[in-house]
Design goal:
The structure is a homodimer of 133-residue chains.
Chain A lengths: L2 H10 L6 E2 H11 L5 H14 L2 E5 L5 E5 L10 E5 L5 E4 L3 H19 L2 E12 L1 H4 L1
Parallel strand pairs in A: 4-6
Antiparallel strand pairs in A: 1-3, 2-3, 4-5
Chain A binds a DNA duplex (25 and 25 nucleotides) through helix 1 and helix 3.
DNA sequence: TTATCTGCAAATAATTTGCAGTCTT
DNA sequence: AAGACTGCAAATTATTTGCAGATAA
């Protein structure tokens, strides 16, 4: 655990953040002024590989990062993305039903297509209240 | 409707295809030998905007294109992606349950967060039979 | 020390854009 | 002829990589 790595973790530590690598870089730069962008990318990839951070894309071709769900359903959520302004809402509603569907789907797809399912993506896109008019 | 555009449509016409822009370009080049890659991108964007084609990403940072669902549930499907070799399986299983969940979710999210839902993504990732071992 | 980590700059790779020529109507 | 469409080449942009020096254990 080195200073740059600590700075990256720190940048992501606020809950509900969905930062791009550039944004992580800016925040991390405050704590570690001469950190390099490449190091940020390398660290984010490392953390993602360890399962501590999850990486996703909302359609603007910039990867976004957030702390991974703390083991299981507890913090499980999905994203609702505004196509207008890019706003991202974390929602946990319907998680029960979703988990049920996911369980069924993973089992069924596994059996039918022989895949060993590792992960999934569920995202909704639409217009937020401000962008609707 | 110009020759290059026709060539792009033609390239996508085979069912079950999930082509990258580069692949569409190669296929389209057969029918229209001096088509340019930029035109392919422009045409794909046009068709996507018209709702005739849908664009998605399986995680390799290359956009993929396929004919859009013909109105509603009829051809509705989702993707099962192999993280090993990139293979993409279209599946329609659990579509009933998924539609039910989607309907509920769209209504609920709309009410709770004020979003007007336009679309969604559901994808599963895992290892295909060949990549499992 | 000894391998790992870092910053910088240069390299990639997908996609976009400027522009001048070409087609369509 | 006026506007839309095209190909080419150059520009963009997020991300990756090579490398020599710095750092952690």
């Amino acid at each position: 655990m080195t200073p740059p790595r600590h700075a990256v973790l720190d940048a992501l530590s606020e809950r509900g953040e969905h930062l791009t690598a550039e944004e992580v870089f800016k925040k991390a730069s405050r704590r570690c002024p001469n950190i390099g962008l490449a190091t940020v990318y390398r660290t984010l990839e490392l953390l993602t590989g360890l399962g501590l951070v999850s990486k996703f894309d909302t359609g603007d071709d910039k990867a976004r990062y957030e702390f991974a769900d703390p083991a299981g359903e507890k913090g499980h959520h999905h994203h609702l993305v505004c196509s207008g302004c890019g706003k991202i809402v974390d929602y946990k509603d319907f998680i029960g039903e979703e988990m049920e569907l996911l369980r069924k789907a993973e089992q069924g797809l596994s059996k039918k297509y022989g895949f060993k399912i590792k992960s999934h993506i569920i995202q909704f896109f639409g217009l937020c209240p401000a962008c609707r008019r």
